[in-house]
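Standup notes
- DV: blocked on the single-chain target, sequence here:
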Amino acid sequence: VPAALLGSALLRRPAALGAAAARCAPARDSHGPPRQGHGSSKAASLHWTGERAVSVLLLGLLPAAYLCPGPAVDYSLAAALTLHGHWGLGQVITDYVHGDVPIKVANTGLYILSALTFAGLCHFNYQDVGICKAVAMLWSL
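- DV (later): unblocked, structure below
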C-alpha cells in the first residue's frame, strides 16, 4: 500500500464517528445573522473593552480617593462602582438564570438595584460626608 494512500485514509473520519459527532454537537451557523439575544461580535468586543476600562479606572480612583478626596472623585467612584457591580451581576444572571421570563425578571431587578445603588451613593455624597471621607473615617477606627 503506497504511503500517500495510507496517510489520506488515516486522516478521514469513519462514517460512524462522523454521524455520532453530528448528533452530539450543536449545529453552528457562522455565516448567518446573529441569533436572537446575541449581539454582534463588535458590540461584545466594545463591552469587554468597556469593562476593562472601568476596572482600570477603579484602580486609578482608589489612590486618588486617598490622595485628593473631593466631590469629583466621590461621584466618579459612585458611577464606576455602580457600573462595575452592574456588569458583574449581569454576568451572574447570564450564567445562572435560565428561561425567558426569569431572565427578564432578573434583568429588571438588576436595573432597579443598579439605579437605587447609584442614587443612594449620590445621595450619600451630597447629603453626608461622601465615599472618600467615609472610607477614611472607617480606616481611622
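- Follow-up: The mean pLDDT is 81.
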